[in-house]
Design a protein that fits this description.
about 50% helix, alpha/beta, Rossmann fold, 10 helices
Length: about 260
């Protein structure tokens, strides 16, 4: 099992191909082949949900860890993600990632080393992405929205390391689900104050004063540079999440009040 930094998608030759997501979003052109039509595609989507539910149903407590696929093994964030996954594993949490390189590989590596289930939910991309060698349970997905459901459904918390658009997508989707009461007692940890500090400053100094979110919404995030703090926060929420539930309920009350006025 190699952790060769040359295995990152930045360096590999990319062979682009049309993905199922791309075909689904391409428009309403009626294909000549019925098996490429939207009604037929619904069956494939249903099958993908069934496969994911079946594979993960008995997983138990788990934490999903996100972050850049471009993070190299010699970088501090890679080492911290590995350490955090090990610590979470010692407290009985499985680890779920997107199954690729970078932070995903680091988190799967920590879980694998400590002997807890190391799950990788891989996604079909226009270029090849192989599951990293530290994944014990791998599920492949064609559709981003199905994969995103599994990343949330089987996790009790998110830890989000520095990353790009995909990482931001997962961050804000999780906050939306919490704010609207779709998921409860679900801590979200941003790891790396230097990286996330600018975003949090904008959230508190622009979004809150503009009335687009409330102070309670901004409080749904824990920003830390400490592996032990991130782990203990998740463990405490799992054992006694009363404090975190109060934060979530406060955010929901504000949201409900706003929609109730419309």
């Amino acid at each position: 099992m190699s952790d060769d930094p040359q295995s990152t998608p930045v360096d590999r030759p990319r062979r682009r191909r049309t993905t199922d997501d791309q075909s689904l979003l391409a428009g309403s052109r009626q294909p000549e082949n019925f098996t490429q039509s939207d009604p037929w595609r619904v069956l494939r989507i249903t099958g993908e949900f069934v496969e994911g539910f079946d594979a993960l149903a008995d997983l138990g407590p788990a934490v999903t860890i996100f972050g850049s696929a471009r993070t190299r093994p010699e970088e501090a964030d890679y080492k911290r993600a590995t350490a955090l996954a090990r610590d979470l594993g010692e407290h009985g949490f499985s680890v779920i990632t997107g199954g690729g390189p970078g932070i995903m590989e680091a988190a799967n590596r920590g879980a694998h080393e400590i002997g807890v289930p190391s799950v990788g939910l891989n996604i079909e991309l226009p270029f090849e992405q192989h599951v990293n060698p530290y994944v014990d349970l791998s599920v492949d997905f064609r559709y981003f929205f199905v994969r995103k459901m599994m990343l949330v459904k089987y996790a009790q918390a998110f830890v989000i390391f520095p990353g790009g658009f995909g990482t931001m997508d997962e961050l804000f989707e999780s906050l939306t689900l919490i704010q609207t009461g779709k998921i409860e007692n679900f801590p979200v940890v941003l790891f790396g104050s230097d990286y996330w500090g600018g975003l949090m400053k904008w959230v508190r100094e622009t979004m809150v004063p503009a009335g687009k979110i409330s102070d309670a919404d901004a409080d749904l995030l824990l920003v830390t540079d400490s592996v032990s703090e991130a782990c203990s926060h998740i463990v405490e929420c799992r054992l006694d999440g009363s404090g975190w539930k109060q934060r979530e309920e406060s955010a929901r009350r504000v949201t409900e009040a706003v929609f109730g006025r419309r």
